[in-house]
């Protein structure tokens, strides 16, 4: 089995809205932070979803430890803000310092990041790529892995393909050079883009479209993560039987085991069985579509109690059982 952590150090997690991509990104960061490893979990959309999952205060524009993984690993988190990233950029390349803060007061920073979304994206991705490349004094990387909770599937290719997005804005100079440096990381073996989906038609179709777009842009496709997988409570024979008329047989069975008023339960039981059978058939069809994409997949179970901290650790454990961080 090829492990995620043996493939890339920058792990980008995307997915259609509602598929739980932020939860998957958080669980992945925990799974990779094993046996003393250190991961950085990066948020770029300003939703503070990571802080909510880990039940901590809003993430500042600085790297902060938010969790300890089994084996002593550590998870740090960072909410990247485009304005702050641009101020850092102006200081780094132009030594503007206080002048950059003055530009912010005048609204120039808002203007730059709004009128030129390609610039905004290169700032956000550039901050994550800097964390990937950063090294300590002893020569080792500061973080073993950087996990990015990225924009949804419909925007992920444009978000990552920053070189094309800024080409018309800056053909030379620091912005151009920064975009090229970012693309060298994003298109290298150091990076993998994972797409989160549910076993439903729309998310699966969007996943298929996203993989095609990523491949066309020569961005590295990682894994499909099938999230919120629910168990099948009926075997194959029961699924097939659910579509037939078995009211009398069910009523007799309920009566034989002493269920009072069993006849009133027949219709609700049949309705649930039919609904379950339809879901099984739908999921089987969507699995076939995913299998046809030629991308390896991981599966994570549906969390009935919601995605709290305990749930994140359970998901991380499930990912490790499937080879992540092993």
Automatic annotation (TrEMBL):
Q: Which InterPro entries match?
A: ArsA/GET3_ATPase-like (IPR025723), ATPase_ArsA/GET3 (IPR016300), P-loop_NTPase (IPR027417)
Keyword Glycoprotein assigned to the entry: answer is: no
Hey, what's the signal peptide range on this chain? none
A molecular function annotated in GO for this UniProt entry is:
ATP hydrolysis activity
Name the keywords, alphabetized. Answer: Hydrolase
EC numbers, comma separated: 3.6.3.16
Keyword Metal-binding recorded: no
Task: Outline the extent of the ArsA/GET3 Anion-transporting ATPase-like domain.
Answer: 11-186
Write down the Pfam families for this protein, in alphabetical order.
ArsA_ATPase (PF02374)
What is the name listed in the Swiss-Prot or TrEMBL entry for this protein? Arsenical pump-driving ATPase
